[in-house]
Amino acid sequence: MTKIIFDTDPGGDDTIALLWLQSLAKQGLLELIAVTTAEGNINSKSTFINASKVLSLGGFEQVELGRGVTVKNPQAADAAHIHGMDGMGNISNNLPAAKHDFDKAVYSDELIIDKLKAYPGEITIIAVAPLSNLAAAETKSPGILKKAKEIVIMGGAFKVSGNVTTHAEFNIFYNSEAAEKVFASCNNIVVLPLDITEKLLFTPEMAEGIVRNSQSNLTQFISDLCNFMTEANLRYRQTKGNKGFLVHDGAAVAYLFYPETLLFRRAKVEIETQGKYTLGKTFFDERFTAKTDANAWVALKVDKEGLLASLLEDLKFLCRN
Ligand code: BDR
Ligand code: CA
Asked: b vs e for 144-170, b when ≥16 Cβ sit within 10 Å of the residue's Cβ?
C-alpha cells in the first residue's frame, strides 16, 4: 500500500486535500504515515492546530503530526487574506480542540528524516506548502530526500503567470532557497503547477452536493469552508470572477490516485533565487530535448472534470463513513 507523508500548511485547499487523503486511506488505498505541517499560508502553530483538527474530523487523530521549522526570512507575507485569519476560513473554532500538542511535537524535518530512514524507497512525500521542512531535512541529513519513492509537489508556474508576483507561485516564492535545494537534491519529483491547478474550481454547488449526500459536522464544515474561500477567491481575483475556490493542493493527490486526469512532460526544473523581478520563478529550458539531467515530471494538462468528479465522490465517501 502506498505510504504517504503529507507536508502541508492548512490552508483551505490543503484541508480539502487532507480530507481527500483520509477518504482514500479509509478505502484502503494508502497509509498515512505522518503529516508534517509547515509555515506558509499562516504561522506554524496555526497550521499545526488546523491539521490536527482536520485529522480528527476524518477519524485519523492517531496519525503523527510534525510542527513546521522556523523560516528566518520568508519572501512573502502569509496568505491569511485568502485562507482566513486562522488559515481555515475563520471557522476552526467551530471544531473540537486539537488533539496533538504543538509544544511537545517533533519538528517536521526530524519526522521526515526518521520516517524516510525507517522505510527507504517506500514513502511518497506529498508537499503542498513552502518547501522549508524538506529542505531542512536535506540540510541536516544530506541525501535523505533520495530515500523517498517520489516527491509530489504543488508549486510553481511555467507557462502561466504566478499568483504572488507575475513570475512566482506562493509555495515556491515563500522560500525559494528551500525550493532550489529540494529540486537540486533529487530527480524523483513530480510537479503540479498553477498551469493546471488554477483550473480546479471547487464550487458551492459541489459543496451542496456533498451536504445533500449526508449531514454531519464534516459536511457542514466543508460547506462553511467553501463559502468562505469562495468569497475570498472572488475578492482577490483568484478565479477570474468565477464562483468557487481553487483546490490547488488536491492536484497532488490526484496524481497518485487518478493519474489518468493529468498529462506530464519530463524536464530539468530550476528555481530563480536572485532575480529582481523573477525571484521564485520555476522554469525549464525548452531548447533541449535530452532528458538525461531531468529532475521532474511537470503536469501541463488536466482533465478538470474528471479530477473534480473523483474528488467529490471520495469526499462523499468520507462523509458517509
Ligand atoms: C498554493 O499556495 C497556497 O496558498 C495554497 O495552499 C497552495 O498550496 C497555491 O499557490
Ligand atoms: Ca498549501
From this structure: bbebbbbbbbbbbbbeeebbbbebbbb
Element holding 310 (H helix, E strand): helix 304-320
Other CB atoms within 10 A of residue 263 CB: 13
Would you say the CB of residue 128 lies under 6 angstroms from ligand 1?
yes
**Nearest Cα residue to atom 10 of ligand 1:** 170
pLDDT tens digits, residue range 164-188? 999 999 999 999 999 999 999 999 9
Which tens digits make up the pLDDT trace of 110-119? 999 999 999 9
Catalytic residue at 248? Answer: yes
- Alpha-carbon distance of 319 to 263, in angstroms, equals 30
Burial 192-213 (b: 16+ CB within 10 A, else e): bbbbbbbbbbbbeebbeebeee
In this predicted model, what pLDDT tens digit does every residue of 278-287 receive, in sequence order?
Answer: 999 999 988 8
Among 73-77, 134-138, 220-224, top mean pLDDT goes to: 134-138
Distance CA 24, CA 41 (A): 25
Q: Is the CB of 41 under 6 A from ligand 1?
A: yes
CA 318 to chain centre: 19
118 CA to centre of own chain: 23
Cut 0.90: pTM above it = yes
Is the CB of 79 within 6 Å of ligand 1? yes
Q: State which ligand 1 atom lies nearest to the alpha carbon of 82.
A: 4
Torsion of CA 190, 191, 196, 202, to 10 degrees: 80
Spatial distance between the Cα atoms of 311 and 251, rounded to a whole number of angstroms: 10
Instruction: Please report, rounded to a whole number, the percentage of residues in the chain having pLDDT higher than 70.
Output: 99
